[in-house]
Amino acid sequence: MDAPAPVAAxxxxxxxxxxxxxxxxxxxxxxxxxxxxxxxxxxxxTGGEIATxxxxxxxxxxxxxxxxxxxxxxxxxxxxxxxRRPVILISNAGLALDFLIMALANTLPILFIARLLGGVTxxxxxxxxxxxxxxxxxxxxxxxxxxxxxxFGLGFTLAPVVGAWLGAIDLHLPFYVAxxxxxxxxxxxxxxxPESLPRERRSAFDWRRANPLGAIKLLRGHPELFGxxxxxxxMALAHLVYPMTFVLYADYRFGWNGPDGLRMIGWALLxxxxxxxxxxGGLIGPITRRxxxxxxxxxxxxxxxxGFVLYALAPNGYWFWAAMPVAxxxxxxxxxxxxxxxxxxxxxxxGRLQGAIGSLNSxxxxxxPTLFTQTLAFVAANKVQGPLAGATFLLAAAMVTTAGxxxxxxxxxxx
Length: 415
Prior knowledge:
The protein is mainly α. Helix content is 79%, strand content 0%. The radius of gyration is 21 Å and the shape is globular.
């Protein structure tokens, strides 16, 4: 039986679409404000040692991503059964509770349990995407999803700076602000957000549809696609070096600690966000039109590998900042790799492809935190100095370079 034709959103749904944009923006802001202070809080709770704090930061991130890996498909299936509205609202309330617990907690076990709760409730981003698909005509979906992408970009550009400034006042303050943002989001959605999935279009909950590994089976029948998926995985893994180690690395290598150090970290994260917006918003289109997707991937991987090496070699924070424009050009590789992958499957398999890519990114999110934080912990514990102190960035450079070589190999037949 053919699926019902999508219905364009009536004018009354404009407030709901605005809410979905705002809920994603606010949730990203809530997560972003705690990025600069969570490592410092863990360092404080675990006794003030950088190596110990780094290890726990990696375990927290791994637990968070592991919960998200399993919760994302389950939440999607639940939203197919019970509707999008209750899943989104419960997730917002859960995030508010998560951040409030972290604001109040002073012990490691409670902080860890709260972070696991955050991994479960933050999986609602996929439900927000499903809401957009429910209420937006097919011809308008690209623009709608683009606005969600803009919400992510704005949130992760602004929030870490604000979080660093708030953390300079009190390490717990960003968590209170994040809890307030999520609580306000829940209240706003409760009064504004209508249900987008009519009862007649809902489906029974099936654990087979909630299997996070199911979509990856698509890749097995397409050797070239499997290789490009490996490129995407390596790039997602390398990208985790930023959120997992930058704050503690800057503390170890450049002495950026205390209120002044947090402000420096905030400015650095702001610069990363601004450069990312410039590259993703203004340079990807012209570059791909001139070079094509394949060469854009190769150029981006080369710049990423070079940028990470320059990070490792930087003797102080100012040289690190000077390397950022080079490393920022790495951002052209991801969208071009996505384009190459989508060109290798038919329209009936695009959804499964995106699911497979999302599953691989979740696996990277599970492996990367421990890999990078354990590397930095070894460096700090052994008081390594010089370029080898940047071992985490050298490891990321190796990953990106390998991704570029793999992309060159699997796509050279088509050119």
